[in-house]
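Query structure, 329 tokens:
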């Protein structure tokens, strides 16, 4: 089966990382956003940093956003909606000129996640790729690409830590703080490196590595805004990076055009259910043999990930990055 994964995995792994921007009123009438409060003391402990990040995440139970997505290979920017209900419900529908009936539908619920390309975008035929969370975690495909819906919310600033994660740091890095979170999985330990503002505790950047220290993807967030009512800070702009087929880099920029927090009114039976059109092929990712896929691609020059300096002695830090570990062939 000839699959076009540049759009699928690029969008899936890093697209849904979004945040809140408020109403788009004219600049000269738009009131200044409140300053982001100081949340961390000098030289904070890892527990203090993690607690600050968790508190920010807990302030957002639901998110309803109008989004704009610009992605490599897309003929024009795509617009649509993103709906989130923590901890694991997500639905994003975007399309060129806002026509979501012919765009991309990405979702997750308690049982499964899916990616539905409704058109022949990028030369691929309409197809639904899906997997059940538990089956995917134990599948051969998961050893090739550690795709997980929680990565979407993490990159949006709704960062969660697994109880099994080992947290190291914070380390000083270029004026910011850095945490390294290591999680045991059936395919080996994965690593997350989080770059954090030393005063506000805002997560500025995240990078995800597989058990062989290969970079899976990274997300940078900016234009953070503080929301007094919910006492949360979220980015309004996200830059998402990963690698698609043939080692091609995919870069996606995501903006929020308007948003509401903790005021989501939807039919859960419809919103959080995988679409089932009868005339579209449905492919289970856990049934795909990943052995034919190339899995090592060097990070692009100038990405900032060609190498990183040591910040701990034993065990040695991740060191030189080997490349991306995504579908490519």
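Result returned for the query:
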């Amino acid at each position: 089966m000839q699959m076009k994964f540049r759009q699928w995995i690029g969008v899936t792994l890093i697209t849904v990382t979004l945040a809140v921007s408020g109403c788009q009123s004219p600049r000269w009438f738009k009131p200044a956003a409140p300053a982001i409060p100081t949340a961390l003391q000098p030289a904070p402990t890892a527990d203090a940093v993690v607690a600050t990040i968790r508190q920010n995440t807990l302030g957002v139970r639901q998110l309803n956003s109008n989004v704009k997505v610009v992605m490599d290979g897309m003929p024009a920017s795509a617009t649509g909606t993103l709906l989130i209900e923590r901890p694991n419900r997500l639905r994003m529908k975007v399309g060129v000129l806002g026509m979501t009936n012919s765009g991309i539908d990405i979702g997750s619920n308690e049982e499964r996640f899916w990616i539905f390309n409704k058109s022949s975008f990028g030369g691929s035929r309409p197809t639904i790729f899906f997997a059940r969370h538990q089956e995917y975690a134990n599948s051969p495909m998961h050893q090739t690409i550690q795709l997980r819906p929680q990565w979407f919310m993490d990159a949006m600033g709704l960062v969660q830590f697994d109880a099994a994660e080992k947290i190291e740091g914070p380390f000083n890095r270029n004026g910011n703080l850095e945490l390294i979170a290591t999680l045991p999985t059936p395919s080996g330990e994965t690593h997350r490196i989080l770059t954090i503002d030393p005063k506000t505790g805002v997560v500025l950047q995240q990078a995800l590595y597989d058990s062989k220290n290969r970079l899976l993807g990274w997300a940078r967030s900016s234009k953070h805004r503080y929301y007094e009512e919910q006492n949360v800070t979220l980015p309004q702009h996200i830059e998402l990076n990963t690698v698609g087929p043939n080692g091609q880099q995919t870069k996606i920029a995501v903006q929020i055009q308007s948003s509401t927090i903790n005021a989501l009114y939807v039919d859960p039976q419809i919103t959080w259910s995988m679409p089932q059109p009868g005339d579209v092929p449905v492919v289970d990712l856990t049934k795909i043999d990943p052995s034919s896929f190339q899995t090592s691609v060097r990070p692009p020059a100038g990405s900032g990930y060609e190498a990183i300096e040591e910040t701990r002695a034993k065990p040695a830090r991740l060191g030189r990055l080997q490349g991306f570990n995504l579908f490519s062939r």
